[in-house]
Amino acid sequence: MKSVLAVLIVGLLGGGVVTVVERKDAPGNTIVHEATTVPPVTEVVTVPAVGQTLLTGTLKTLSADNAQADPIPTPFTINAVERGAVRNATVEGAIINGARKTVYWYAGQPLPVSGAGGALDLGPAHVDADVHGVTWSLMGTSAFKSGNYRFGSSVAVGSAGLATPEDGGVSFGADGHTVLTASDGVVIHLDSPTLKIDGPGTLQLTGTFTLRTRSGSATATTLTMANGPFEVTLAPAPGGVSVTATLQGTVTSK
Question: What is the pTM of this model?
């Protein structure tokens, strides 16, 4: 009878258990079984601070006052909720042919604004958003980022006395003294619902939301914050617009 010699070696290698079985009647055939250690799965759960509400969900509408965002880059179009001379905007301190000029727009037609690397800083402003996009109110004063711009529709230009019509639009330079002042009802609409804003300000949301506070979780379809700091991010998502927000203040929801 053929003799069989089996040798069993057990050791600790690299934190695991290794078993080696070597059979004399099968030269060169070594079987190694290694048991490795699986790292634990770590789940991070953010706990809301005192007075804080964390919101996630799908947005239908958003309306915010005193919202702040990054400057709006060109190209964009300035428009009016209702066309006509009751809606207007002026650009003061525009640099045209080396001189300071004032540009007048009377809302008779949309005003396309272009310019490589240009942008308009609205400062705190009113904003509305839904699945169709974002609409910023320009009422008050906004600042142009330094650079070169072009208005692509009819305006008037003057420095003293009567302004001269420029039916084909006008090009101008902007610096730290170039500002746009608009009446109520003058807006910029952006077709994408992508938005990132912060406050303090007022906030109204409708949609389908999950709210988390120190006291637990709840669901809601409407939310209002009368005043307080907030950070809100909107992004296109399957089925609508996703929203995440951090609110610090008194929140009313239902």
Answer: 0.80
